[in-house]
Amino acid sequence: MNTPTGSHHLAAVIVLAAGEGTRMKSSTPKVLHRIGGRTLVGHAIAAARAVTPEHLAVVVRHKHDLVAAHVTEVDPQAVIADQDEVKGTGRATECALDALPQGLDGTILVTYGDVPLLAGDTLQSLVDEHVATQSAVTVITAHLADPTGYGRILRGGDGGVEGIVEQKDATDDQRAITEINSGIYAFDAAVLIDALGKVGTDNVQGEKYLTDVLAIARKAGGRVSAHLIEDLWQTEGVNDRVQLARLGKELNRRTTERWMREGVTIVDPDTTWIDSDVSIGRDTTILPGTQLLGATAIGERATIGPDTTLTDTEVGAGAEVKRTEALLAVIGAGATVGPFSYLRPGTELGAKGKIGGFVETKNAKIGDGAKVPHLTYAGDAVIGEGANIGAGTIFANYDGVAKHQTTIGRHSFIGSDTVLIAPVNVADGAYVGAGSALTGDVEPGQIAVARGRQRNIDGWVARARAGTKTAKAAEEAAANAAGEAATKVTGAGVTSADHEATTRHTDDSTEGQANA
Ligand code: UD1
Ligand code: CA
């Protein structure tokens, strides 16, 4: 019985991924190489899942354990089918059918693990055409200017597909045919199972060819159709690293175009790289040299870049992230980050917060409106809402053995050049004087100053550096001051502002904020 059974549900997609991929010259199996942040087989699985099959099988052999583990990680429901030592795409498909429940009916799709640009909607239109034409087999074909290496589509006098001949088995006349087999098919399940039992290995390569199923189905009276597509990228496989880069670039072109059509401004798509699993809100602007990687999610009206790499990072609406590297970080709505900031895993910046230039953060929860504007390392930190961390502050979280946490309360101020030696807590509404090396907690309303008191030694320069330009400058300054004092005595006298400036100079209570 080689006519369709009448049941049209999509029983399974079989992804063939047992090939070795020797031309990659890699210790990593070919299908585990990545473009757009996903492995090649990851792209194949995503396309397969887009058409919601009842079952999904991936055929593996080369570097079996690595590929199988990855497939299970990407898609825990996928069935792993092992190909034995019999070679060929027909045998690979047979091994998948052995691993799936027996006696499937309806439609079965076969795709490849190394054809990453094949889209789910192309597979859907293949299924639709296959069902509408009541075909036993429908194969995706394309016309190529240079069809070398591909199987060629043999059409009969009526234009119907009679079979496929491999390049290596083809006559000169057949090699002149430019319509090629993509290797992607829809089969009636019963036809496929029956025909595969009849496929031999009598060909130049001694392999069990899946392509032989078409002629067998046709001879048994089934209809064999071609689904000709124009978008040649969708049938192109990766065989070497030149193709990997070429397809990676085209995938990125498609991804950036998709986001522009969704309302995202991308100033320079050529230098912007966006992984397949990234999401971006409307009216966000991406500036040149930006890479949005992994599961990064950007809200609406944000500005990202230039020269920014965000991996698995979440950015809230209206945030600005400039010249920044971030990994597993969360940036709140309306927050600003950069330039030259490094956000490591566990960084959470609150709404309207700020992480500024030459600041590195790790496992740091920074509250709404809190600011870490300049030259800081904040590791294992909890910083309250509205707090302000002065320039050059270091959260010394590591004592050489263990990591410890520092907490800074709401609306507290940390003076510049402070070392917070963890574990240490600064309460809400407290100050720490600039230049402190803080080892103890600070209570609400206090200022803590933990540094040497300033000592000024009169006449030191004249004694210890006599004859230097410094000593001469000191002498001149003293002479000028004496002259000015004489003028002031005859004039208005010492002002209160001058007096305050003099005392402030040695006052330990100065908080010394250098940030704006
Ligand atoms: C195959 C087709 C050819 C088509 C071309 C499109 C056959 C006999 N030929 O040729 O008509 O034009 O694809 O690219 O089907 N694979 C396995 N197990 C195997 C052999 C292959 O899983 O034993 C997988 C590979 O991992 C790969 C895919 O099947 O993903 C195609 O294998 P490949 O060796 O590239 O097939 P071609 O000889 O190029
Ligand atoms: Ca191939």
Task: Give a quick set of tags describing it.
UDP N-Acetylglucosamine Acyltransferase, domain 1; elongated; seven-stranded mixed sheet; binds uridine-diphosphate-N-acetylglucosamine; 516 residues; disordered N terminus; 11 helices; 14-stranded parallel sheet
What this model shows, in words?
The chain has 516 residues and is an alpha/beta fold. It has 3 domains: 10-235, Alpha-Beta Complex (Spore Coat Polysaccharide Biosynthesis Protein SpsA, Chain A), CATH 3.90.550; 252-448, UDP N-Acetylglucosamine Acyltransferase, domain 1, CATH 2.160.10.10; 452-516, no CATH class. It has 11 helices and 39 strands. Strands 13, 14, 16, 17, 19, 20, 22, 23, 25, 26, 28, 30, 33 and 36 form a 14-stranded parallel sheet that branches. A 7-stranded mixed sheet has the order 5-4-1-6-10-7-11. Helix 2 (64-74) links the parallel strand 4 and strand 5 (79-82). The longest helix has 22 residues, at 469-490. The model is unreliable at 1-5 and 493-507 (pLDDT under 50). Uridine-diphosphate-N-acetylglucosamine binds next to helix 3 and strand 10. This is Bifunctional protein GlmU. Mg(2+) binds at residues 114, 239. Its cofactor is Mg(2+). Its EC number is 2.7.7.23, 2.3.1.157.
